[in-house]
Amino acid sequence: MKYPSVHYSDYLEIEKIINAQHPKSDEYKKPAHDELLFIITHQTYELWFKQILFELNSVLSTFHQPQVEENEMGRASARLERIVSILKMVLGQIDVLETMTPLDFLDFRDMLYPASGFQSFQWRLIETKLGLRMGDRLSYNQSPFYKSLAESQQAEMLKVLEEPSLFDALEKWLERTPFLQADDFNFWESYQKAVNDMFQADIETVKNNDRLPPEDKEKNIKSLQDSLKTFDALFDEQAFNEIRQAGNFRLSYKALHAALLIQLYRDQPVFQIPFRIIRALLDIDETMTMWRYRHALMAHRMLGQKIGTGGSSGHKYLADATSKHKIFNDFFNLTTFFIPRSQIPTLPKSISDRMNFHY
Amino acid sequence: MKYPSVHYSDYLEIEKIINAQHPKSDEYKKPAHDELLFIITHQTYELWFKQILFELNSVLSTFHQPQVEENEMGRASARLERIVSILKMVLGQIDVLETMTPLDFLDFRDMLYPASGFQSFQWRLIETKLGLRMGDRLSYNQSPFYKSLAESQQAEMLKVLEEPSLFDALEKWLERTPFLQADDFNFWESYQKAVNDMFQADIETVKNNDRLPPEDKEKNIKSLQDSLKTFDALFDEQAFNEIRQAGNFRLSYKALHAALLIQLYRDQPVFQIPFRIIRALLDIDETMTMWRYRHALMAHRMLGQKIGTGGSSGHKYLADATSKHKIFNDFFNLTTFFIPRSQIPTLPKSISDRMNFHY
Amino acid sequence: MKYPSVHYSDYLEIEKIINAQHPKSDEYKKPAHDELLFIITHQTYELWFKQILFELNSVLSTFHQPQVEENEMGRASARLERIVSILKMVLGQIDVLETMTPLDFLDFRDMLYPASGFQSFQWRLIETKLGLRMGDRLSYNQSPFYKSLAESQQAEMLKVLEEPSLFDALEKWLERTPFLQADDFNFWESYQKAVNDMFQADIETVKNNDRLPPEDKEKNIKSLQDSLKTFDALFDEQAFNEIRQAGNFRLSYKALHAALLIQLYRDQPVFQIPFRIIRALLDIDETMTMWRYRHALMAHRMLGQKIGTGGSSGHKYLADATSKHKIFNDFFNLTTFFIPRSQIPTLPKSISDRMNFHY
Amino acid sequence: MKYPSVHYSDYLEIEKIINAQHPKSDEYKKPAHDELLFIITHQTYELWFKQILFELNSVLSTFHQPQVEENEMGRASARLERIVSILKMVLGQIDVLETMTPLDFLDFRDMLYPASGFQSFQWRLIETKLGLRMGDRLSYNQSPFYKSLAESQQAEMLKVLEEPSLFDALEKWLERTPFLQADDFNFWESYQKAVNDMFQADIETVKNNDRLPPEDKEKNIKSLQDSLKTFDALFDEQAFNEIRQAGNFRLSYKALHAALLIQLYRDQPVFQIPFRIIRALLDIDETMTMWRYRHALMAHRMLGQKIGTGGSSGHKYLADATSKHKIFNDFFNLTTFFIPRSQIPTLPKSISDRMNFHY
Q: Which residues pair with B143 in a beta bridge?
């Protein structure tokens, strides 16, 4: 073969990797056994974050194209699913880290001050590239999050914050979905009818539920009526824009329509892979949210009510950020607009034909 | 052998088990493929809940004894760890359930109304037997949680609510810990000194942290001083009782002392297993919290903003319950009172001798 | 709503489910604490097996059709992936079962004799419906495997053994793959050329590998030449049929071609989902193999060298069955015929056009 | 505080870690997307191997002492359990690696030749330090395993092979177990009687099992009688030494006795932690075995029947090594000597007293 021989150790640069652990507790001549676990856990996190960024960048460059070829979709979907797979595994790693007890952590905790996971540049990059904006974030120690980063990283972060994210690219891609405006079929009109029918049925259900006390009935009916009003978003662009300005939606009117179309007609060959892409994004968001939450619990366990290594009350911040830092919330909320399959309008053959192969 | 032959199918009563699935969607002649997954997932949950209750009851009967023999400790610890193992596995099962998409769920969701996981008697029993009291719970649909149970189960639940829980039994057991009052060694006095020294050092740290803006310094110092004040709880029974009445602690003064002693001196042979028991309880609490949180996320994904199957806005309730329903919160908060191992007072030989074997 | 109210307990038939545990050790008045865990673990297995069979049957009925519509492919793929997800979770359950120690097992082991997991009808059904034939199986206690089943189940098993399996249906489906015979492009000829080029290069690699001792070089070169000969299977139907008759392949000549085509051109829109279907089958086979192997290890740990509960030396049988009972071995071996993407012949536009959407 | 400020990035040497990936496919200007995943997966393996070695060395230094203090036992046990936890997580990582398909691997496989996981120095160290001897190993490419290592590592490996392993240290520690020779109680005599009784009962069971054909009965009875003969090992040192020389046992007569004593009387306070230590070693062995087996499956999937990257037919070697490289096989086989708890001789109070605390 044309390639020179390679040895496992050289190829993987193992010497470099396994000699990059320098516990502070050794430096200060107060060796703390568990500091190595702490270092290695975080180093493997960062290696996996690099991998996630690599996959993310490749998916980004696919979706940033003015036109995404169908033969790139399977790969994009597989790479997003790989990110899910990595995130799940990395979430499980916390089990290993938690074999370190709070007392073991105390042996070296003070030596790390004020280092903290909040300073992970790559994690912040992942969030940002997925689509978390400056304004979506909880402020930390009353200054913008990027101030926690190393100085050399702050400029790059600000630059990335300006670039279109996966959320942005996806929104554009959704807006370009064909079939949104099919001259020969007014999908949204028939959908609107189906929705109204369904909600009237739901309201009846509550009315007839004898287990619910009257006050609850009233409250639930009110809530159903409010939900129905939310549907205005689907059918009235102006209503939607108001709701959106209030922060209840982030996707554009058209993109939301497209996402709903993909979800409802996911069995059409042309939507099978796009459906998986949306599902992978939901999985990514969900697993990152679990990761934050699990860290909040661990911080509570490790630190009690004491201040975090970074000088903030760690677990409260984390618990709050958990719910706030979801990026594809619209895809979660989109479910509100689903109606049972039996009531979904049937596509006319002229349209379903165009969604299929012809060989 | 004296035992008659047994066949796998009969022994495991498989016919009974695998014929106990009757999808509503079949009953109503609108077969929804994913309803079986929904049923089986919940049935396996309930089977595992039965197992958890069985282990829990066995641990309860051990700790309810006026005197727990040392040779029962290894077993109690193993059974609590088994509960952790079950809970982790059951948490992972949500990955399987989430292969059901919201649209698939819609195919039969309405047929289940108002059935809901809130009605799981066994889960409520687990929480209650661990120590979750009526008053600790978030109310649901403005009525006490046990009203959601089947009528036949409500009376039993009220009875169990009256019985001493594992929390209660454990508290008594902790209070009986020997070594709390050793005539020849005033542990708490030397511990108090060590604590004060440590906090003064921490305050200095913040003062000298140039990265923190002045306002943050002040805030953090204030927070450290507040924390130090919390330590009064350890040294002043009256101060403790006030804090406790305010809801910040649930364990008694003596039990808290004992738990701290076990944590700090866990390497002493006599405390090696008790330490594992406390750790298992933390793991149980943490995994149950994760389970609730994961369900909240799933509810959001499955239902959007729509009302839950039980008629409440599911994911909000779940997310709120998540943080509120932790039972052994004191063990989490106890970490606040840890000091680095190097500063923990050394036990006099007279005491450490009594904590060891002599063969 | 038109549906009557439903309660969680009734809907899930919980009373039936959680009252179907009758430990033999209770019956014989020698209560063994861990028998309940043993029962419940196996009952949840069987519940999940029911679910797997349900998904499998649905996929079977899809692939048994004379023509599989493209809009059923996404669903079939999702259901196979669900089976993978269930199998992985069920594999993890062994961690829970292994919290039972061999000594705990001994407390009731004799009471179960000769019951054994070999008697699980549903597991055997899963294997058979996937495509494991009578002759593929290791015999157990020198009688055919179905003799271990309950008598009422033996007839059904023999019937299912006669029916076409997923392997069979898939083979037919693969044989129908369009594009296998494209008049305007001789794929196999250009592929054959690419293969020959690649192997010559590999042989050179070995020749030039200075780390290998001469004897090894020779052996490796011989082995490469043997592998190249295996490629005859792809290009010479008669050679293939001989190899196949010797038991080295199970798929037909045409089906193997189709599977290879899907693997190599998986990025073509028309193959994106078929590729996932093959991958899911590999995952199913791999996870079932891991499951058998893990059981072999557990049997060794639980029973030492002693005979299994069914009267055979359990772990040896299991370890042997592990490797022998793989069903889609051809898909594993197919990799042998892959060549690097850079060397895969480019499809002419006339063909790749027909593999794409046109909207 | 006395410690200077620390930043997350500097502390964790992240720049060094995430800049140590240099794909060969980039070097050769034929970028293969999945090579980064391949590199990072293996780098995280090696980071975890470093951690495992660190824990292992600490446990080794504990057990190499002429006398292990009881207050070090809890820690040793926790560290072995941490190794189990790491191994389980690392086993799960294969799910991530398998998101790389064989075709993706082919894009760069040839560039790595003959690098291979067989060359991992740290993995070999783990095996060796646990107790895998040169002679226990399958030879690889007909030369001793250490020849695959980088030259600089071969000398160190030979040195470590000479040092006492954990197996050796543990054997010595077991041999020192008190209570083995209690003047006032002849444990082994009463155990021998219990064993004989039990086996006679088992033989009866087989005789009376009507489902077994006569030939099987005979075979099983023969096998039980053979097993009973194995018990000679427990009671006749000379018989044991013959069996041991034949390779059926590795532990010394005394050490085997001690391990059995710990297993049978694990509820005695003095044995609660030693029991956990043995269990952790079984878990380590089992998980490492699963790891090898899973790699064998993956190799089959990735490479088909083709030679591994190191020039050997990978998956066959791995599958064979899987079963052969178990280290604590004696602990697995020890189960053969267990008898039901109800038949285990009761300890006289004089002895059980010495196994307990007295405070």
A: B140
Shortest Cα–Cα distance, C240 to chain A (Å): 29
Alpha-carbon span C1 to B307, nearest angstrom: 14
DSSP A231: T
Measured between CB atoms, which of D20, D93, D99 is closest to A17?
Answer: D20
CA B38 to chain CA centroid, nearest Å: 26
Q: Is C47 on the interface with B (CB under 8 A)?
A: yes
Q: Is the pLDDT of residue C181 over 90?
A: no
pLDDT band at B307 (very low <50, low <70, confident <90, very high): very low
- Mark yes or no for CB contact A208/C71 under 8 Å: no
- Judged by DSSP in three states, A19 sits in coil
> Percent helix, strand and coil across chain B, each rounded to 5?
70, 0, 30
Q: CB count, 10 Å around CB of B324?
A: 13
Alpha-carbon distance A9 to D115, whole Å? 8
Range scoring the smallest mean pLDDT among A155-159, A332-336, B209-213: B209-213
pLDDT value of position C310? 42
If you measure CA to CA, which chain B residue comes closest to D265? Answer: B71
Tell me, yes or no, if D265 comes closer than 8 A to chain B by beta carbon.
no
Q: Which domains does chain D have, with CATH numbers?
A: 23-179+233-354 (1.20.58.480)
Q: How far is CA B146 from CA A13, B51, B139, B317, C350, in A?
A: 60, 22, 10, 16, 68
**Does the CA dihedral A327-A332-A337-A342 come out positive or negative?**
positive
- Euclidean distance between CA atoms D348 and D190, whole angstroms: 12
DSSP alpha helices (H): ranges in chain A? 8-11, 14-18, 24-27, 35-63, 73-97, 102-109, 121-130, 151-162, 166-175, 187-208, 214-230, 232-235, 237-245, 253-264, 269-303, 314-324, 329-334, 349-354
**Cis ω for the linkage preceding A348 (within 30 of 0):** no
Residue type, D174: L
pLDDT at C79: 98
Neighbours of A342 (CB within 10 A): 10
On whether the CB atoms of residues D198 and C297 are closer than 8 A, the answer is no
* Number of other residues whose CB lies within 10 A of the CB of residue A2: 10
CB contact under 8 A, A355 and C356: no
Query: Tokens 């060989």 correspond to what residue?
Result: A359
Rounded (5°) CA angle A16-A18-A19: 65
pLDDT(D346) > 50: yes
Taking CA atoms, what residue in C is nearest to D290? C294
Work out the mean pLDDT of chain A and round it to a whole number.
Answer: 90
Structure tokens at A268: 């059409």
Band of the pLDDT at B220, cuts 50, 70, 90?
Answer: confident
User: What is the token pair recorded at C80?
Assistant: 């196979």
Task: Give the SS3 label for residue D51.
Answer: helix
Q: Which of A355, A338, A341 is nearest to A185 (CA)?
A: A355
Decide: C130 and C171 in contact? Cβ < 8 Å: no
Instruction: DSSP letter for B217, please.
Output: H
Closest partner residue to B272 (CB to CB) among D73, D179, D354 is D73
Phi, psi of A304 (to 5 degrees): 60, -140
Q: Among A309, A336, A353, which residue's Cα sits nearest to residue A102?
A: A309
Q: pLDDT tens-digit profile of A96-149?
A: 999 999 999 999 998 998 898 889 999 999 999 999 999 888 876 678 889 889
Say which residues have a Cβ less than 8 Å from residue A102's Cβ, sequence separation at least 6. A301, A302, A303, A304, B263, B335, B338
C-beta of residue B328 within 8 angstroms of C-beta of residue B285: yes
Cis peptide before C114 (omega within 30 of 0): yes
Best residue in A47, A53, A94 to probe D by mutation, most D CBs within 10 Å? A47
Q: What is the rounded CA–CA span in Å between residue A357 and residue C67?
A: 14
User: Between residues B336 and A259, which one has the greater pLDDT?
Assistant: A259
